[in-house]
């Protein structure tokens, strides 16, 4: 097949771009091999591990156990707690993040002074290592030396709260950090969408007497909808799978109140050495994420039909 | 240009100010804490501006943990991974952007799906594989993981840059009888150079900032990268020496911030070119 296209190419230069020839393979292989060996392969290996009793440092050979890990997971209330926490966290971060980012993007799209500063600042959380973001907010939340409690007590709004270790506040406190940390990407994506919106449409709508909300609904939103859907779906998935931020902030505490699924799986695998069981958790997470992705793709296809 | 009411403008500026405060205050607090002497950090009423600013925390941070070595490890890992990633990703991105064959379709699908992997499903098998290769606690093993981990995004960005290159030049080269590889190397790659640099810098930052894989794969402090060493400052009980912790965290951010400032515009463009068209 490739030979045929290669010979045809010399006769007709333009057709060469369409078919794959040997050259195309040479260009693809350097990336394809590492992807297959270090990503696709391990992923399949990981899925098979979920059906074994693989453990770290065990002397007897690993055995197939069928769906046993999944049956155990079904009855593992700690896992379902973490799953529930993961969903609350993912919703709790993604939704406010989207609205805040949309607001900021709309502002940055206006001819306001100081918006360069907001743009520059909005990049900071993005460029920082998540570990630093976690450390930074630990300093903000610190019961004595933190700025939050000091400010609240100056405003007469109670004092000495232990945000990250209090069972009532911990999840809320980490969600706020999640919103802060993820806002830049969302803002930048939405802003780019806004800047692709033709100004004339806005002006025409304004001439027709459309108010701000109408203009947003009929001109702005349709223009940024594809990006908004994509970034929201990705944010949800990234948040559901996140690890470093909450690991640094609370290590999953207090009493598992912020133990996201990834933290749980990490502990199961690398603290208790239960590779097979942790792999099964990973599979369940993939299944859930696939459902979300499917919803997103369906939504995106529908959106495509409208336009 | 539309006229905007004065009251609307006032509301907009108020909102912008609120955003500025929300975005800036944790970072300002980090800097403030980094320069505070221990006794100010122990006081119950911390202030924004250190009364008695000191560099003592920075000195102590270097004493407490092998920060320089960790920064060196991070640099080696991030630099190698980003260079390897763009060298192997660029040709593939070219094929993905210009050819609609099975390989490029599968690769595009993989780029999208890989965004959804929970890393735990990848890291357990990788851990076992690298262990068999005696590459646990080795930067080489980590670099291999980083290369593959940064590939999807690198491909995504690069495909966008390739699409921005007009096809006429390539067609002319093909008519002249240049092979695909030859066309790519001498016609397309030079035009892509700015995009390749931006992609490499982005891959560098992601690797420089990465924590999870490094935490799992690197066991001893001599091998660990900066984020893992930073995490060591927070003891297992969560009790930390706040000043040195803040100082070290502040230092670890500077390289990424500088690079990000340089490539900010390009990232936005490249990312969206990929995101919108994919």
UniProtKB/TrEMBL annotation, chain A:
<keyword id="KW-0813">Transport</keyword>
<dbReference type="InterPro" id="IPR000515">
    <property type="entry name" value="MetI-like"/>
</dbReference>
<keyword id="KW-1003">Cell membrane</keyword>
<feature type="transmembrane region" description="Helical">
    <location>
        <begin position="24"/>
        <end position="47"/>
    </location>
</feature>
<keyword id="KW-0472">Membrane</keyword>
<dbReference type="InterPro" id="IPR051393">
    <property type="entry name" value="ABC_transporter_permease"/>
</dbReference>
<keyword id="KW-1133">Transmembrane helix</keyword>
<protein>
    <submittedName>
        <fullName>Sugar ABC transporter permease</fullName>
    </submittedName>
</protein>
<feature type="domain" description="ABC transmembrane type-1">
    <location>
        <begin position="83"/>
        <end position="296"/>
    </location>
</feature>
<dbReference type="InterPro" id="IPR035906">
    <property type="entry name" value="MetI-like_sf"/>
</dbReference>
<dbReference type="Pfam" id="PF00528">
    <property type="entry name" value="BPD_transp_1"/>
</dbReference>
<feature type="transmembrane region" description="Helical">
    <location>
        <begin position="227"/>
        <end position="249"/>
    </location>
</feature>
<feature type="transmembrane region" description="Helical">
    <location>
        <begin position="87"/>
        <end position="108"/>
    </location>
</feature>
<keyword id="KW-0812">Transmembrane</keyword>
<comment type="similarity">
    <text>Belongs to the binding-protein-dependent transport system permease family.</text>
</comment>
<feature type="transmembrane region" description="Helical">
    <location>
        <begin position="163"/>
        <end position="183"/>
    </location>
</feature>
<feature type="transmembrane region" description="Helical">
    <location>
        <begin position="120"/>
        <end position="140"/>
    </location>
</feature>
<feature type="transmembrane region" description="Helical">
    <location>
        <begin position="275"/>
        <end position="298"/>
    </location>
</feature>
């Amino acid at each position: 097949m490739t030979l045929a296209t290669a010979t045809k190419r010399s006769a007709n230069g333009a057709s060469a771009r369409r078919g794959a020839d040997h050259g195309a393979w040479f260009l693809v292989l350097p990336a394809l091999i590492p992807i297959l060996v270090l990503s696709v392969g391990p992923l399949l290996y990981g899925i098979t591990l979920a059906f074994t009793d693989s453990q770290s440092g065990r002397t007897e050979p690993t055995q197939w156990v069928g769906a046993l890990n999944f049956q155990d997971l079904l009855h593992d209330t700690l896992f379902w707690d973490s799953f529930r926490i993961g969903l609350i966290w993912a919703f709790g971060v993604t939704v406010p993040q989207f609205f805040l980012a949309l607001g900021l993007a709309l502002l940055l799209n206006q001819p306001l002074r100081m918006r360069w500063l907001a743009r520059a600042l909005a990049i900071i959380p993005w460029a920082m290592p998540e570990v630093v973001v976690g450390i930074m907010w630990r300093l903000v939340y610190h019961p004595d030396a933190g700025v939050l409690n000091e400010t609240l007590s100056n405003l007469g709004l109670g004092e000495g709260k232990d945000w990250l270790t209090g069972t009532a506040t911990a999840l809320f406190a980490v969600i706020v950090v999640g919103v802060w940390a993820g806002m830049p990407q969302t803002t930048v994506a939405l802003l780019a969408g806004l800047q692709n919106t033709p100004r004339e449409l806005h002006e025409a709508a304004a001439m027709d007497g459309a108010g701000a909300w109408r203009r947003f609904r009929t001109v702005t939103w349709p223009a940024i909808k594809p990006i908004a859907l994509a970034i929201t779906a990705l944010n949800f998935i990234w948040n559901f799978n996140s690890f470093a931020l909450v690991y640094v902030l609370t290590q999953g505490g207090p009493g598992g109140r912020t133990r996201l699924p990834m933290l749980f799986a990490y502990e199961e695998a690398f603290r208790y050495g239960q590779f097979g069981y942790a792999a099964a958790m990973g599979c369940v997470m993939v299944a859930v994420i696939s459902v979300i992705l499917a919803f997103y793709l369906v939504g995106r296809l529908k959106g495509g039909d409208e336009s | 240009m539309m006229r905007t009411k004065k009251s609307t403008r006032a509301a907009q500026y108020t909102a912008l100010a609120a955003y500025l405060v929300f975005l800036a205050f944790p970072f300002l607090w980090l800097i403030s804490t980094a320069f505070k002497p221990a006794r100010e950090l122990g006081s119950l009423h911390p202030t924004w501006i250190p009364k008695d600013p000191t560099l003592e925390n920075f000195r102590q941070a270097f004493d407490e943990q092998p920060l320089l070595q960790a920064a060196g490890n991070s640099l080696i890992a991030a630099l190698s991974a980003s260079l390897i990633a763009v060298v192997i990703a660029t040709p593939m991105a070219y094929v993905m952007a210009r050819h609609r064959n099975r390989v490029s379709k599968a690769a595009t699908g993989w780029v999208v799906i890989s965004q959804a992997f929970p890393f735990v499903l990848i890291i357990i098998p990788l851990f076992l594989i690298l262990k068999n290769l005696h590459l646990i606690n080795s930067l080489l093993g980590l670099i291999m993981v980083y290369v593959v981990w940064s590939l999807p995004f690198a491909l995504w960005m690069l495909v966008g840059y390739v699409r921005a290159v007009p096809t006429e030049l390539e067609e002319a080269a093909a008519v002249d009888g240049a092979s695909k590889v030859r066309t790519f190397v001498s016609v397309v790659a030079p035009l892509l150079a700015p995009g390749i640099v931006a992609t490499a810098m982005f891959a560098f930052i992601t690797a420089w900032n990465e924590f999870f894989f490094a935490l799992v794969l690197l066991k001893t402090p001599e091998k660990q990268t900066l984020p893992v060493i930073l995490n060591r400052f927070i003891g297992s009980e969560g009790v930390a020496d706040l000043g040195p912790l803040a100082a070290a965290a502040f230092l670890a951010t500077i390289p990424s911030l500088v690079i990000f400032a340089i490539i900010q515009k390009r990232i936005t463009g490249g990312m969206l070119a990929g995101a919108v068209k994919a």
